[in-house]
Amino acid sequence: MAAKLNEFYKQAAQEFGLAGRIKLAMLTKISSEKAEAAEDSPENIRIFERAIQQLRSGS
Amino acid sequence: MKISTKLIIFFCGVVVLFVMLALALLAQTRTVSAGYDALLAQQVRQAEAARVIQVNFKKQVQEWKDILLRGHAPDDLARYTRQFHDEESEVRSGAAALATAVQDAEARELLDQFLAAHKTMSEKYQAAYDAYIAGGFDFKVADKMVRGQDRAPTNLFDQVVQRLNEQVVASVASQERAVRAARNLALGATGGLLAGLGLVGLLTVRAILQRLGRLKAVSDRLAKADIEGLSVDISGPDEIGQFGESMKGVHAAIEELSTLATAAGQA
C-alpha cells in the first residue's frame, strides 16, 4: 500500500478539487488507483512532491 | 538519440560520402590522365620519331639513286649530293637522339647497331661517290660498290620501329588494365557504400515507423477511452519517446477521470 502517495491525492483534492486530482495524475503519470498499488518509494514520493509543487505554482 | 539528430547525421553522412566519392573519382581521373599523358609524351612520341627517321633513311637512299641517275648534270649533282648529306645528317642525329631518349634496352641496342651500320654504309657510299665522279659519272661502278649496303641498316631500323610500336601497344594495354581495375574498384566502393547507406536509412526509417505505429495504437485507444489493460510502453530519448511519456500522463488522467466517474456513479 502506498499511503503517502494516497495522501498526495487527498492533498490535491483538498487544495484544487477534482481538477487537481486529474492534473496530479497527468503530471505524475500515476492514477490514484495505480498509486494504491504502487510503493512509497523515494523516487515516487519525489515525483509526487514535484507535481504538487507544480500544481501550487500553477504551471 | 533524437530523430532530428539521426536525420541530420544521416544527411551529413550522405553529403560527406558523396563528396569523398567525387574527390576519389577526381583523383582517379587525374591518375588515368597522367598515365596517358606520360604514354603520349614518351613512348608514342618516340615511336613517331622512329617512323620519321625511317622515312628520312629511305629518302637518303632515294637521293643516292638520284645522284647516280642524274649526277651527270652539274646542277643535279650538287643538288642531290646536298640533299643526300642533309638526309644522312638528319637520320644520324635523329637516331642518336632517339637512342639517348629510349628507356627500353633492346631498342637502344638496336639503335646503336643501326648507327654503326649507318656509319659503315655512309663510308661505302662516300667511296662509291668518289669513284662515280672519278669514273666520269659511271653509275654502274658506283652502284656495284654499294649494292645491298642499305639492307642491314634498313632491317635494323625496321626492328627499332617494330620494337617501339610493341612497347606502345603494351603500354596502352597496361594502361587500359589499370583503368579497368580502377573503374571496378570505384564501382564496387560506390555500390557498397550506397548499399550500406541505403540499409542504414532503411533500418532507421523502419524503427521510426514501428515506434510511430505503436504510438498511434495507444493514441487510438485513448481517443476511444479504451484504457482497460492499456499499457503505454513507449520510451526512449527521441521525440517518439517524449511523446510516449506525454501519452502516459494523458492515460493516467483518463484513468483518474474514470475512477472519479465510477465513484460519483456509486455515490
Structure characterization notes:
The complex is a heterodimer of chains A (59) and B (267). With 59 residues, chain A is mainly α. Helices cover 81% and strands 0% of the residues of chain A. Chain A has one domain. The model of chain A has no long low-confidence stretch (mean pLDDT 91). Chain B has a domain of 148 residues: Alpha-catenin/vinculin-like (Four Helix Bundle (Hemerythrin (Met), subunit A)). Classes of the chains: A mainly alpha (59), B mainly alpha (267). Chains A and B meet through helix 1 and helix 2 of A and helix 6 of B.
Can you write the helix and strand succession of chain B as a string? HHHHHH
Structural class of chain A: mainly alpha
Tally of individual helices of chain B:
6
Structural class of chain B: mainly alpha
Strand composition percent of chain B = under 5%
The biggest beta sheet of chain B is recorded as: none
Kindly, what is the distance between the CA atoms of the first and last residues of chain B, rounded to a whole number of angstroms? 49 Å
Number of helical runs of chain A?
3
CATH domain topology of the domain at 26-173 in chain B: Four Helix Bundle (Hemerythrin (Met), subunit A)
Within CATH, the superfamily of the domain at 26-173 in chain B carries the name: Alpha-catenin/vinculin-like
Give the N-to-C terminal Cα separation of chain A: 29 Å
**Major pleated sheet of chain A:** none
Name the assembly state: heterodimer
Q: What's the rounded overall pLDDT mean of chain B?
A: 91
CATH class of the domain at 26-173 in chain B: Mainly Alpha
The strand count of chain A comes to: 0
Level-2 CATH architecture of the domain at 26-173 in chain B:
Up-down Bundle
